[in-house]
Amino acid sequence: MHTLIVTAAIIHREDKILIAQRKRDADHGLKWEFPGGKLKFGEDPRDGLRREIKEEMDMEVEVGEIFEVVSHIYGERHILLLCYTCRYLGQRPTTRDCQDFRWVTPQEMDDYDFTAADLPVVKKLQLKS
């Protein structure tokens, strides 16, 4: 078993947060998640998160403080998910490397089928709102 270190962005725009839908042919296809992705070996998590958001959604964010850390096991893979609060800089996201995206309130997140690793983050956001 190996551990993958993955970053995710909690991007706020007023009272809503950006969520992204995984592509159909990806692991956990069509599930919803907070945008981000795997770190490259030796990459700083904040730099990796900025890179992933640019690659996945063609937008820039300002990465802030850590919001939550989630440890989750999918079969033979251990995921360590580092979630950071991020500031939206006004650039409209695109679906460059995701199926779809939405701006939703924490309460509206119950209407979306999130990946298991993202569920603790959803719950924490709902408790804070």
Automatic annotation (TrEMBL):
GO biological process: DNA repair; DNA replication
Enzyme Commission number: 3.6.1.55
Annotated InterPro entries: Mutator_MutT, MutT-like, NUDIX_hydrolase-like_dom_sf, NUDIX_hydrolase_CS, NUDIX_hydrolase_dom
Cofactor(s) in the UniProt record: Mg(2+)
GO molecular function terms listed in the Swiss-Prot or TrEMBL record: 8-oxo-7,8-dihydrodeoxyguanosine triphosphate pyrophosphatase activity; 8-oxo-7,8-dihydroguanosine triphosphate pyrophosphatase activity; 8-oxo-dGDP phosphatase activity; 8-oxo-GDP phosphatase activity; metal ion binding
Lineage: superkingdom: Bacteria
Residues holding Mg(2+): G36, E56
Keyword Hydrolase: yes
Catalytic reaction annotation: 8-oxo-dGTP + H2O = 8-oxo-dGMP + diphosphate + H(+)
Keywords: DNA damage, DNA repair, DNA replication, Hydrolase, Magnesium, Metal-binding, Mutator protein
Nudix hydrolase domain span: 1-127
Chain positions recorded as 8-oxo-dGTP binding sites: R22, E33, F34, P35, G36
DNA repair keyword on record: yes
Protein family according to the UniProt entry: Belongs to the Nudix hydrolase family.
Protein name in UniProt: 8-oxo-dGTP diphosphatase
Organism annotation: Desulfotomaculum nigrificans (strain DSM 14880 / VKM B-2319 / CO-1-SRB) (Desulfotomaculum carboxydivorans)
